Amino acid sequence: MASVPPPSPEAQLSFLAKLQRLFAEGDFTATYKFALLIALADLAVELGADDGSALRLATRQIGERFIQQYWRQSLDYGTGRAGALPGVLAQNLGDQAAVVTAIKAFRARTGINMPWQAARHPDYRALLSKVTQTVSAQPLKFLQNFGGGNDPFLYERTGPGQLVLNPGVAYCLRRFHPLVQQLARTHWVGHVKSNKLNRGILGEADDLEDFLFRISRQSLVAFCAGLRKIDGDNCFYCGGALREVDVDHYIPFSLYPRDMAHNFVLAHRACNRSKSDMLAARRHLERWLERTVKRGDDLAEVGSGAGIVGDGPTILRVAAWGYESVRKSGGRAWVSPLRFEDVGVECTSLFDG
After folding, report:
1. What is the pTM of this model?
2. Is 310 helix (H, G, I), strand (E, B) or coil?
3. What's the chain's Rg over C-alpha atoms?
4. Residue 174 near residue 321, CB atoms below 8 Å
5. CB under 8 Å to 117, separation ≥6 — which residues?
6. pLDDT per position as a tens digit, 39-57
7. What SS3 state is found at 146?
8. Residue 264 pLDDT more than 80?
9. Least C-beta-crowded within 10 Å: which of 15, 194, 289, 314?
């Protein structure tokens, strides 16, 4: 199949302008639309290509992402917080969001605490069906309504359980992924904070964004212990013995804000802070790719026990996208404190095998 040219610079600017209008002029009575934008952006990175082709998706795929996004948000927030009463945060201006209610009922019925364990339970199919129906009937139907009209600039519904991202949309979602994520998450946090139903739960909240979108500290501690058994007690980057240890996102969270087991490495706090939001240089990439392939099953198992998704093929596609994006923008990679190098084809070619 012939490659489709990427959208022109003018078309990309038009996409951003419409996205801005969607946030400014859209009707957001619940957080579903923010979750949908995050899901579409993630799926574009993981399944799309750097050309202008359309991308076919199943609504079931989006339903799975909704379960992952809302899983932790079906837990009580505010436990032990002064001036706050523990409770599940309202994601809707009226009755609690149906997705949250369905997940909470599933958890109470099955006793399952980890979303990746949930998929193995016989009742998961019914949960996924219910969530997918909600997604189809609500955010997928109404997301592209803004400014008093409907502008299907993102996708078209092509049949029961199917949609297609319009030509050029997957490319734009991939290119502007950090921006889309930041906009959606910022508005999501703002929506939850401004909802009067949450006032008694939030109190003086200062960690709301972490609660909504990051893995819990308890899960991270459990994963760190398992990661030590796989990788040992040395910093992934400099090789020195670990004393104060950080669990670092190899592909920076700022670039791709989704926690995945294969993307975590153990690092010195100093190395982690120095690397910050940068990609790592080729010497690190080569070892990370080898580790991801050779120890992939071990990483998935440790991640499952800590409630962190393990998906080696997906994180490899994400990494290929990340390095190619930074290469095209003329970005640099982190070698060690105060040492950097260009991201060139010698990095991106490592994903061709």
Report:
1. 0.92
2. coil
3. 21
4. yes
5. 304
6. 999 999 999 999 999 999 9
7. strand
8. yes
9. 194
